[in-house]
Specification:
Blueprint lengths: L6 E8 L5 E11 L6 E11 L10 E6 L9 E8 L8 H5 L1
Parallel strand pairs: 3-5
Antiparallel strand pairs: 1-2, 1-4, 2-3, 4-5
Length: about 90
């Protein structure tokens, strides 16, 4: 029997590490008693071998074997490119 790996879709919140991105996955849930939508945000460390994803991108990640102390996911594809404005420190003070 073939086991299917879990997939998640989230936003890249950090790409400062080498071949690793941090992906924030937002899962809204409905509270059974109070009927209020509760947002749960989970951060996953994902392996990005080709460094395709950048800060602000929406990516699809897949569960994989443990690659390091925290990495258990890998980037499958970049769904949409993010809009991140590049602002220099000199432009802020003026």
């Amino acid at each position: 029997m073939e086991k299917k790996r879990k997939t998640r879709q989230g936003k890249v919140i950090s790409d400062k590490m080498d071949k690793t991105v941090v992906v924030a996955v937002d899962t809204p849930r409905h509270h059974p008693l109070y009927k209020k939508t509760i947002r749960r945000v989970v951060k996953y460390y994902a392996h990005d071998e080709k460094k395709l994803s950048k800060l602000g991108d929406t990516v699809k990640i897949e569960e994989t074997r443990p690659l390091s102390h925290l990495k258990r996911w890998r980037v499958l594809e970049v769904v949409t490119k993010g809009e991140v404005a590049e602002v220099k420190p000199e432009e802020i003070t003026n």
